[in-house]
Amino acid sequence: MDSTCKIEGVLIRRSLFSDADDLAELMKMHDYAADGIPRSAVFGGGTKQFFQHLIETSSVTLTAVSSTPELEVVVGFAAFSIVPEGLDPIWETLLQENYSIDPKAITKDNTVEDILCTNTLWLNFMLCPPVTTHLTRVSRETNSRRHDWEAFIAKTPYDGYSLCEELLYHALGTQQHVAHLLCHTHGKFNVIENIGFAEQTPKSKGEGELYYAHRNRVLDKLHLRLGRIEDYDDFVPLLVKGTGVITNLPQDFYLEEILKDQNQENKVLVAETQKTHRLVGMACVRVLSSEEQQLISKRYQTDSFQKFAPVRNRSQTTSNLLLIDFLYFNPEYCFSVTDFIRYLYVHFPTHEYCAVCLPHDIEEPPFLHQFRYLPIRKYQPHNARGESLPIPDGLWVHCRYSLDSLSIQLVNDKNDVAQVEEFMDAPRYGLTPAVSTAFRESANSSLEDDEMAGNHICATLRWGPQRDIVGLASVQRMSVPDMYALRSNYDIDQFTHFNIKKGHDYSATTISLTSQDKKEDFYSEEMRGILVKSLYIIPAFDEGFRTFVSHLLRLCGAEMAVILVSKEVQANPSIAKIFIPAQPRRVVESLTSASGAADNEDSDVDDDVAFLNIKPLNTLLFATKRSLSDAHQRVNTRIVVVGASATGFAFLYRLLTVPYAHFTNIVLVSVDGLTPHLYQNANQWHTDQMEMLEREHSLLFTRQSIRVVTGALVDLDKVNKFVSVDNGVFEPYDYLVLTTGRQYITPPSIRTLQQQEGQSSRAGVIPLNSENAIDRLRQKLKELDRDANNVSNVVVYGSGLEAITVVNAILKEGFSPQRVVLCRPEEDVPDSMNYDAYQIVVNYFKHLGTSVLQGYDASRLEFDDENKLRTVVLDPVSHERAADSAIELNCSIIVCAETKDIDPNVLSTLNKRSIVFDGRVIVENNYRTTDPSVFAAGPVAMFTRRYGATESFDDFNAKDVGYHLAEVLMGFIGFDEFVDPKYHTSNPSEMNNGDKDNTLYTKVLEENGSKVAKHNNVLGEMTEEEALETLRRLPQYSSPLARRTFFLHDFVFSARAASTLTSTSVPPSPAGILIPRTASASSTTSSPSSLTITLALWSRSFTCPSTLTSTPA
């Protein structure tokens, strides 16, 4: 994240791994700037590899670069960490034994906190040459670059001290909890001493130089006071300017009267600069009454804070909540937010919580980073009298105790175990019995002496002078093979670098070596990890999660913390704010056994820890010291997704895998809820489109930021922005995303026959349009199978691969193949198959005894006296067949897998609420409908006709569509990196003008006598160049389409085709292969009892039982 700098022409950002080259070159210029460029011995190195190691393992690394686009070069660098470079990671003992540092005496301030591991940061490297140093580069540059360098040096005159102060300023500004800075060197470095660091004298020689500085020596401390009536005149210009105003102006806001009428329950707090007394912050704070506090507790999800019950003074009966009615804070002074909040509690010493109400979709200013967002409870749009109720704003809450310094202590003795037991015995919000039991076992096992127990660590997070336990962690050290097992299954490498010190020597991976030969030469112990088995912090202190995990890494000598979660083993919701999900690799899963033995028993790697049990559906969350120092961008925008289609799942997955964003307010509305992955069902009733892996899909279950509402959309209020669900739930939204898929319906031909017989739409006819429909079918199959007197058939009605999949699912349920009939109204081969593959499937079914009727449709249905389906008559579709070729079947169930359509509830709602509709929802190239807050993609949507006759979304890979939809929406939310002028510059109102060719739109205009109705802007009337330019504005989807279904006897049918909007190397015509489930698609099994058939299009071979034959085309 880039930050502005007081030095003109210089930008300070987080360091990149690629900066190491420039930094190493800069170190060679020591002779030209001894004050700003240290010798390599001072900080212990200066090579490219050294800087790569610093950037990868430090908590905070900052790089100063020139902000000129033509000359983006590195001009400075600083590295900070919770671990001193070259010293013992557990440095508290070293500090106590060899140095006497008294922060209170040094700063002459008795309120300064003691030095603790949790409030201290080590400066491990500083590189801050003056701008004149770069004059040596000018002579070596080309003419154009030389001019850029000369302009930069002339425009940006700064010295090394100014650059050093800027780097320190930005580091402490992002680390609000840090009060102390320490720096350990092996030689003098003048810059450190001249900017406020005081050298500390060691008790013994040979320890090197140690420098200390308090936060206030680096940052200008603000002057905090109560407001005065004179502040009114100073504040009005700031209010008019608007910058820094966080809250909306309350109604009847009279600042002058508020300043005049301050008392014990209403106060105005002001922050101003020390030297110029310029006003930079103001907060109007009042004490809420007990009734107001109760109202807020009922309106918002405050259970995690125990509805603001007192933490310390349990007997307190008065209100415990403060409310900031108005807040202004200059963002340039965000480094002093903690001081300002602490000062607020000074004037309200008996209150423990402070809150502020703001719109949900506000981009959180730095002031709110220490507050916790609480969503509203169940919303009701009307009261008992039928009056409309406004949707409440979002609530941000802060607990005063989160400002206190915390300490970390390992469980080492029986007294510690007793304290853990006492902590577990008390009722704790969000602490499940299973986690509580795990903590007890971990605390007791930490006292055992065996080698394995030594790798299990139990730690406590403590608070206050009494060192009360407020958090617990149970971790296990991971072996090097454990880390590599994770790397083989999850793409951790895109976030971190391995083998930095050792270098990228991959000689051990040469194919001339055996699989285990010199395996230890390749394994690196640099990136050691810990497995977090359990982690819990009292919600009032959950801002300490980062600190807790960071110092667990320090105490364990590790660089990465990982959590393996699943649908059954959930992580604390607060962990989502600091841990990053690692995307699973799209490779064959490399699993390890739960017993601790590797797959290859001949491994010669010494394992000090048992291998991890990596289950197929685990989701890996990880954090490093570096990532823990990066504040995730918290997005509280309310996003409501309607429809659990493949597009909707891909959309959600993309949002959840943005590593630096944390979405807190996502709601999924679906008839079937959050459905499991296709392979997690006992049987496969739908064709696998292969968009998401099981591990990718499982992330949706384990990330608790998704709230699921089971039901169907029945109404939409565009003015007040909420949707109505058929179960009585009302969900407010800032953005509504429609990703409803198409479900099977009763085909018109069969529906007409039902109506002729006067039967209900469900009498013996089951369209597979939901999980309930599948459960109903399975139940009827069981009843039919148990009824010995009923030997009627089950007809599967459908022409595509889905119908074949349904037949397979029925057979896998154990139903007799001889009583299953596949009725295909189409005479042609299914789109997903070629002729050879289709004939194999037909012969396969015939071999089992299942009949396949091609080119037949239902012509008559007969029902018995109990209105149950008894007979179906199937006639040939083609008139060329004989009239007497009709087939009459005893039939109890017709399974419809032919015609699909959008949920009629969704279509009715959109049509009723004037969302432009033409059989499907009309969207722009950015998926926006006519309502700028409503987006749509997938089968429910179609691009506006302004782009001509575009393909259906069914012809695109749903994963591509969902990913692109998420990225476009993030651009609208405020993520600059996702803003694309092609999608984010058009005016939403253009939709109304661009869709004049829409038939529904045109009809409405014609009925009102508008001449504009004759407008017809289609691609056919454009020039070829104009048509191509218009099409270029459409999204491009590159991934191919795929279909796969599983047969009995472990056979798999797979087909793949190119996406229609782009050209790929995949054959444009769909083809298919039928292979044994355990074999490769390109393998050929030769045996006397098998027949090899080759598909010419792919030139690949597969095998099938010799009893199945293929009819030549």
TrEMBL record:
Pfam families: CFAP61_N, Pyr_redox_2. Signal peptide: none annotated. Residues 638-944 form the FAD/NAD(P)-binding domain. GO terms for molecular function: oxidoreductase activity. It comes from the Eukaryota. InterPro entries: CFAP61, CFAP61_N, FAD/NAD-bd_sf, FAD/NAD-binding_dom. Residues 12-285 form the Cilia- and flagella-associated protein 61 N-terminal domain. This is Pyridine nucleotide-disulphide oxidoreductase. It comes from Angomonas deanei.
